[in-house]
Amino acid sequence: MTEDVMTDTQTMAPELTGNKGLVIDWSSDKQAFHVPWGKAMMWIFLLSDTFIFSCFLIGYMNVRSSTTVQWPNPSEVFALSFGGQPIPLILIAIMTFVLITSSGTMALAVNYGYRRDKKKTVLLMLATAALGAAFVGMQAFEWTKLIVEEGVRPWGNPMGAAQFGSAFFMITGFHGMHVSAGVIYLIVVAKRVGTGYYDRHRGGNYEMVEIAGLYWHFVDLVWVFIFAFFYLW
Amino acid sequence: MAHAEASQVEGHQQHPLKIYLWVWLLLFVLSAFSYMVDYMQLQGLLRWSLILLFMFLKAGFILAIFMHMAWERLALIYAIMLPPLCLLVFIGLMQIEGEYTYIMRLIAFGAAPDIVPPPH
């Protein structure tokens, strides 16, 4: 009970917003972020993750701009043909749409969570997890094709600059690991929503769904940058 | 506005479903556009300016609407959005370094050797 009271006072924001609100929030040795602590911590984790992915992408930029060897054309490397003409980047495009679809179902899950619609929340979260698993599956297919058929290795490949393989496996591998972890995370939270864990232990507060959603949208956000810089550039 | 204020006081992010559905649709359209950039084989300035434009639009909508940044207070927005600006300096430094290495390689090793397939 005391916990509930504390949460209420902590998340109560002063009336002023904008620049004056900014000063008030940061002054007088008091709580700066008027959000649940779990949400603030998730944002700070995502900030640190931003720097990790940025280091990978900047490293990729550096090796690509410093090599004197021709960079393999991603449009051709990632083309797939279904019987006839190869379609450029088609698998990557499908993966992008799958991930955006999963982001949409997650946003709806958060919305239904706050409406206390348990059934829809659980179903939408499981749909999100299933789409995430499908994404990882397609990525596994892509890796297999690249390694077995195209002969891409972290130290070289037949199509051009050796750094292509190392950048590709590092960046997409780390992103795929995030998606996989996200699938597990979503299933755990969905199970807790379904079994009424948050009703019993959090006074019916479904903010955990929103926090899980932040992580999932971030994974989609990172893919937007990978898609632009690695596959399209 | 009154609605947004209320949701902030509660610490909840409760918004109409419609806005999510619209942004969802928009993200699909933007993704299709960025795929078309590659499909149409656009090159040069047009190619990378369109790639960047669609990328920033998509990232912005995901952050602002799906991640609810548009409705958070400035204290949180600044704490999360300002530190990544340091990356611009990092990008600039690594770009200079990359070009330097490129020139050094050209001077020291000459033009690119023929591509050698990797040992299996």
Feature tags:
heterodimer, A: 233 residues, mainly alpha, Four Helix Bundle (Hemerythrin (Met), subunit A), 2 domains, two-stranded antiparallel ribbon, disordered N terminus, B: 120 residues, flat
Structure notes:
The complex is a heterodimer of chains A (233) and B (120). Chain A is mainly α. Chain A has two domains: 1-34, no CATH class; 35-232, Four Helix Bundle (Hemerythrin (Met), subunit A) (Up-down Bundle). Chain A has helices spanning 2-11, 18-26, 37-66, 74-77, 90-114, 118-149, 163-194, 197-201, 207-232; strands spanning 80-81, 86-87. Chain A has a two-stranded antiparallel sheet. In chain A, helix 3 packs parallel to helix 9 (207-232). Chain A starts with a helix and ends with a helix. The model of chain A is unreliable at 1-6 (pLDDT under 50). Chain B has 120 residues and is mainly alpha-helical. In chain B, helix 2 (17-39) packs antiparallel against helix 3 (44-66). Chain B has two domains: 1-72; 78-110. Mean pLDDT of chain B is 85; it is low at 1-10. At the A-B interface, helix 2, helix 3, helix 5 and helix 9 of A face helix 1, helix 2, helix 3, helix 4 and helix 5 of B.
CATH names the topology of the largest domain in chain A as: Four Helix Bundle (Hemerythrin (Met), subunit A)
Distance between the termini of chain A: 55 Å
What number is the mean pLDDT of chain A? 90
Distance between the termini of chain B: 63 Å
Which second-level CATH architecture of the largest domain in chain A applies?
Up-down Bundle
Number of strands of chain A: 2
Instruction: Please name the two chains that share the biggest interface, counting residues whose Cβ lies under 8 Å from a Cβ on the partner chain.
Output: A-B, 76 and 68 residues
Topology pattern of chain B, helix = H, strand = E:
HHHHH
The helix content of chain B, as a percent range, equals: over 70%
What is the general shape of chain A?
Answer: globular
Please mark out the parts of chain A with pLDDT under 50 across 5 or more consecutive residues, or reply none. Answer: 1-6
Helix segment tally of chain A: 9
Please describe the biggest sheet of chain B, giving its number of strands, its sense, and whether it closes into a barrel: none
Major sheet description of chain A: 2 strands, antiparallel
Number of helices of chain B: 5
Q: Could you estimate the helical fraction of the residues of chain A in percent?
A: over 70%
Number of domains of chain A: 2
- Overall pLDDT level of chain B: 85
Radius of gyration of chain B, in angstroms, nearest whole number: 22 Å
The main sheet of chain A orders its strands as 1-2
